[in-house]
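PROTEIN DESIGN WORKSHEET
SECTION A - STRUCTURE
LENGTH: 398
TOKENS:
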């Protein structure tokens, strides 16, 4: 999916050892369709040259040496051009200057002149980024609409260990997608997405599972995040770079308990539940403590199973818009099975997926028929399909 196709993103780079990581971020933005221009401080040029950014972006970098008023290579031209302004890495000096309205270099002048959404990813020593002055200024900027990407924890260039590492490029990229795609409808809503296949324990080391990769679920979690929703993921699959609230759950019982907690916490808002996890239909009738020895069992073994709980039927659906997922092998009876599921489990919508040439377990492409107030068919990569389904549900709620 060209998440940022033809979107105009201005990348500001300030002084610090993390400046080289901005190259990877620029490449990631461009790979997803964005047009990227770069403005650098003099301090940033001490760590990395502008030629590297020009080679990646195919655009002249704005610096003290390159500024021109014969074209738009200046702080006003860049400010008017940008749809999103990202500063990554942002030094503590830059963050604190912005909060005080200081504009004593080209990057700061461009930032203040720009009316586009702004995203700042700080990188500094822990003592500097957690200083009371810096924290107060971050809160001040957040209050006026500047978005911050939380710094990571780990080994710092100075030898210390703590908070202050530049966030991963993928995480900054996801936040950029959110800044450009979010809308009023989804910003007012919570999206709960169950992910992956369940694993029901046989003993302490073995389990009954299924072939679900969780890719469809992650597609829905990403799409909901990009559109501005508060997102929870529940299951044994997650995207490590996606800044959602994740709750680990392996079995159907664990998933049901996690769902109950999240639904209760968000009971006062209109939440959307995307039950995309492949919950196993069967579980071991009696879980064995410890590890069962094959020498004691013999050459053959009969495992007694019980029917697993039906999470969709059991959860409290008050204030929930519930979307069920139905994967079928038989195309002749798939639609009737999805309608039966929707009616019997009192669902608002069903995503019907017939496993075949396009839709495969573990594949990146899918074909989904959305059965809601109306019916629509979506084909493409799993993120694109999820995004278009969410937009469709949004329109149906209008």
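SECTION B - SEQUENCE
RESIDUE ASSIGNMENT:
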């Amino acid at each position: 999916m060209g998440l940022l196709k033809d979107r105009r993103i201005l990348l500001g780079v300030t002084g610090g050892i993390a400046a080289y990581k901005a190259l990877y971020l620029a490449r990631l933005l461009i790979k997803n369709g964005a047009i990227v221009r770069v403005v650098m401080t003099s301090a940033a040029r001490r760590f990395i040259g502008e030629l590297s950014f020009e080679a990646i972006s195919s655009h002249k970098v704005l610096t003290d040496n390159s500024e021109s008023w014969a074209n738009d290579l200046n702080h006003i031209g860049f400010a008017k051009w940008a749809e999103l302004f990202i500063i990554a890495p942002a030094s503590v000096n830059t963050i604190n200057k912005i909060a005080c309205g200081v504009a004593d270099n080209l990057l700061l002048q461009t930032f203040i002149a720009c009316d586009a959404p702004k995203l700042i990813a700080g990188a500094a020593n822990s003592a500097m980024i957690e200083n009371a002055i810096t924290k107060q200024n971050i809160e001040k900027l957040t209050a006026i609409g500047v978005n911050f990407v939380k710094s990571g924890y780990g080994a710092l260039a100075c030898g210390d260990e703590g908070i202050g590492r530049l966030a991963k490029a993928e995480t900054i990229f996801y936040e950029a997608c959110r800044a450009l795609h979010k809308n009023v409808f989804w910003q007012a809503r919570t999206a709960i997405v169950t992910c992956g296949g369940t694993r029901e324990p046989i003993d302490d080391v073995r389990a009954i599972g299924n072939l679900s990769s969780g890719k469809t679920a992650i597609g829905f979690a990403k799409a909901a995040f990009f559109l501005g929703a508060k997102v929870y993921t529940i299951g044994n699959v997650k995207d490590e770079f996606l800044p959602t609230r994740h709750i680990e759950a392996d079995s159907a019982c664990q998933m049901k308990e996690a769902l109950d907690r999240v639904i209760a916490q968000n009971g006062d808002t209109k939440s959307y539940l995307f039950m995309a996890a492949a919950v196993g239909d069967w579980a071991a009738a009696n879980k064995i403590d410890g590890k069962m020895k094959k020498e004691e069992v013999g050459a053959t073994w009969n495992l007694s199973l019980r029917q697993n709980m039906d999470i969709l039927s059991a959860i409290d659906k008050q204030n929930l818009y519930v979307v069920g997922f139905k994967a079928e092998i038989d195309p002749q009876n798939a639609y009737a099975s999805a309608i039966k599921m929707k009616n019997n489990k009192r669902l608002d919508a069903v995503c019907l997926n017939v496993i075949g040439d396009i839709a495969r377990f573990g594949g990146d492409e899918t074909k989904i028929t959305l059965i809601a107030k109306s019916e629509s068919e979506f084909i493409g990569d799993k993120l694109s399909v999820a995004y278009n389904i969410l937009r469709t549900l949004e329109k149906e709620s209008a």
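SECTION C - NOTES
The chain has a mean pLDDT of 93.
The first helix runs from residue 21 to 31.
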